[in-house]
Amino acid sequence: MNWQLLKSFRNPQIVKELSVILDNRIALVTGKLGRPPVLMEVCGTHTMAFSKTGIRSIVRDKIVLKSGPGCPVCVTAQTDIDMMIELAKCPGVILTTFGDMMRVPGSYSNLLEERAKGADVRVVYSPLDALKIAREFPNHEVVFLGIGFETTVPIIAMSIKEAVKQSLKNFSLFSVHKAAAPVISVLIKDQTLNIDGFILPGHVSVVIGESGFSFMAEETDIPAVIAGFDPVDLLQGLIMIIEMIVEEKKGVGNQYTRLVKPEGNQVAQQAIRNYFTEVTAEWRGIGSIPGSGLVLKEEYAGLDACRKFSVQAPPARKVKGCLCGEIIKGKATPFQCSLFDKACSPVTPVGPCMVSVEGTCSAYYNYDRGGNW
Amino acid sequence: MCLAVPSKVIELKGEYAAEIEYLGNRRDVSITLVPDVKQGDWVLVHAGFALEIIDEQYAAESLKLWREMNDELAIT
After folding, report:
1. In B, residues 4-23, which contact A (CB 8 Å cutoff)?
2. Cα distance between residue A133 and residue B17, in whole Å
3. Closest chain A residue by Cα to residue B58
4. At a CB cut-off of 8 Å and minimum separation 6, what does B24 contact?
5. 3-state DSSP assignment of residue B69
6. Which of A105, A127, A107 is CA-nearest to residue A174?
7. Are residues A142 and A217 in the same domain?
8. Which end of chain A is more exposed for a tag (fewer CB within 10 A), N or C?
9. Strand ranges (E), A214-323
């Protein structure tokens, strides 16, 4: 393997030629449907990649490309965010988190504000860094905010394994982890969305495999394609999904074969099963979805921050005018929100979709403003 | 959040860790999720862990597929 081969997935010449092929396929599908196809990407990293590479804007008159509930920070329920802020306020707690969470607005405050007021909140690159902090500060309670889909969950599971091995008594996890498949199951049943095809999350699929989405062929006629994140991947993914729509194929195609195996990464799947159990979880804008939340199993209750600390979140406050809930479902675009690019910007985010770099509002703000949408 | 980068495995450091390089940056990552990894492999790295080994053959095939599509379009 060499870097040149991987770099080809970003080659401008290939991108140019693929765009011509895509245009050809779009003409076919538009002729068949009598209207532009409606596609949805269900991954925050795809939302960001489609905007950043400019592909969203080059296809915007030809494909209705919706952004779905794929940003883990954005889909986290307000009460869970308020709980995280309450945990940060507990005396003796060092709260560790991925950077995305710091500025997410709670009902009354955010983690950055709490840190300014004296709370010990630290951004880490890996949960292993949080374990290191726990070893260094044995008299403090170190809490890690577990947030993310199946891509991230095995990594947290391996860190829990390490915490058990090291007999760390002052480490715990606040898990709002979620599984992507159950929310896609909800989306395919939503008649009002009228989706013709889904672009499925590439890195979630690295873990759960093509087989993780095999339920789609049974539950719906809507086709789906697992795609990677470089410009060539995105265009190939669009071409593949459009061909499936034209040929009336259902099931799941795989563009990202260099990383996604039919069975996925079974070591990672086993790690999830060893430490986590499925529960009903609350999603912002969508409500509760059975089997979509992943929390620590009963035998690891000692490492579960929810059981270790008896904190109560204050009553959640809804921000007037914020459309994050509708945007997450793909029922509104950021441009339809009256706060977008006015009261709400990356500097002064009102809702979570503007905070996370993978949030729909943030991606559209940074790369897609100024067009006639 | 699911952002992950392709990185080259420079050196295995025992059973559980490896030194990887991405765009000139080197760091140690856990290889507990990819037990078959070898020195010289390219891996997908997410939050301090190698998540999967990149398959060279499939990478080359994806690109070949595009060339075939392109040729087909030139003919039609």
Report:
1. 4, 6, 8
2. 19
3. A258
4. none
5. helix
6. A127
7. yes
8. C
9. 224-226, 252-254, 276-283, 287-296
What sections of A140-230 are H helices per DSSP?
Answer: 153-165, 180-189, 202-208, 215-219
- Residue A372 is predicted with a pLDDT of 58
Q: What's the farthest any 2 CA atoms get from each other in chain B?
A: 55
Torsions phi, psi of A256, nearest 5? -95, 50
Cβ(A144)–Cβ(A176) below 8 Å: no
Q: Does B56 touch chain A (CB under 8 A)?
A: yes
Residue with tokens 């989405």: A213
Residue A243 phi, psi dihedral angles, 5° rounding: -65, -40
Q: Give the number of domains in chain A.
A: 2
In three-state secondary structure terms, A154 is helix
Q: Do A126 and B47 touch (CB under 8 A)?
A: yes
* DSSP states along B25-39: EEEEEE-TT-TT--T
* Predicted TM-score (pTM) of this structure: 0.95
Q: In the CATH scheme, what architecture does the domain B5-75 have? A: Roll (2.30)
Contact indicator for A343, A334 with CB cutoff of 8 Å: no
Are A300 and A275 in contact by the 8 Å Cβ rule? The answer is yes
Given A293, A318, A343, which residue is the final one in a domain?
Answer: A318
Q: What is the per-residue pLDDT across A48-104, written as a single tens digit (0 to 9) for each?
A: 999 999 999 999 999 999 999 999 999 999 999 999 999 999 999 999 999 989 999
Q: Is B66 on the interface with A (CB under 8 A)?
A: yes
**Residue A208 is encoded by which pair of tokens?**
């759960």
Neighbour tally for A305: CB within 10 Å: 25
Q: Looking at the structure, do residues A272 and A333 belong to the same domain, yes or no?
A: no
Interchain CB distance below 8 Å, B35 and A129: no
pLDDT tens per residue across span A194-227: 999 999 999 999 999 999 999 999 999 999 999 9
- Which burial class, exposed, middle or buried, applies to A214 when counting CB atoms under 10 A from its CB (0-12, 13-18, 19+)? middle
A131 and A70 within one domain: yes
Write down the ipTM of this complex: 0.92
Grade residue B62 by pLDDT with cuts at 50, 70 and 90.
Answer: confident
